[in-house]
Design brief:
Layout lengths: L1 H13 L17 H4 L6 H6 L3 E9 L9 E13 L2 E14 L2 E14 L6 E16 L18 E17 L9 E8 L6 E6 L2 E6 L3 E11 L5 E11 L5 E9 L4 E8 L3 E10 L3 E10 L4 H4 L2 E10 L2
Antiparallel strand pairs: 1-2, 1-16, 2-3, 3-4, 4-5, 5-6, 6-7, 7-10, 8-9, 10-11, 11-12, 12-13, 13-14, 14-15, 15-16
Length: 311
Amino acid sequence: MSRLLYIVIFLYISFPIFAQQTPLFTQYRENYAVINPAMLSSDYLLREQNLDFGVSLRTQWTNLDNHPVTQTVKGNFIYAKSGVSITSGGFLINDKTGPTSNTGIYGKIGGVLSDDPYWGGIAMGISIGVQQFRVDASKFTQRQEGDILTLQDQSTISPDVGFGFYYYKRFDKGWFSDDIVYAGISVPQVLGLNVAFDEGDSNFDIRRQPHFNLIAGYYKMLDGDKFIEPSVWLRYVANAPLSVDVNFRYHVNKSIFFGFGGSIGRTLHFETGFVIGDQLRVGYGFDYPFNTIGPIGRSTHEINLSFALER
């Protein structure tokens, strides 16, 4: 199975093929800090918990050897007092697929334009960081010497910048009382730099393209601390197909939630989790593709842990 993965990677780095380069998530609302530096957490919108930390692990196409693996660690703080609302935080992300991998560390800062951030506002944010791209050349199977690159590990470091906007509003009347609607747009990899590996006669480039994300959703509050949350995540990069995920999550009460959804790439999503003491949340996501990769790569698993509190 690993040979197929290497073929995909070989095509990706040898020819001008365009595809999604930023990480994918099943529970994308739990990884909002990575996707959009302006986005506010559900912990803040629902419970005014303005400090949160989290980790996540995603293993994709688990039936393949050296399958894609993504790990993230993130933290966020919202200061909202005396008419001033400032968002800050950062995250560390590590993404590996076969012989290629990258690790990035970012800080982010933003602000919320609002007379009263509890009822809504417009947020703006920017993330600034660096990424190290690595290639374990010894994992490539060469048909003849010099096909791709010499059998030596290579790495390069590149700056990265992203920005985003986010809008949210809480309703206070009638059937929509306490409901919340939100939407955000963001552009990671604004710089769009090429990452070049060059060693003698062996060289290749990874062309980093700006990506465009849109996340929108709606919290419909029900009796007894229950609520439902439909949401959508659109991703676009030039010369690649538009990617759309649609999901529906239901919080049975303060402690338990589950959800399901799908993408236009013919992938089904399922998620479930629980909350302990209004602060610790554990979530599990599962994907199964019904496209070409499905019978070969099989399923994807994702685990998210987060801790939130009011400071």
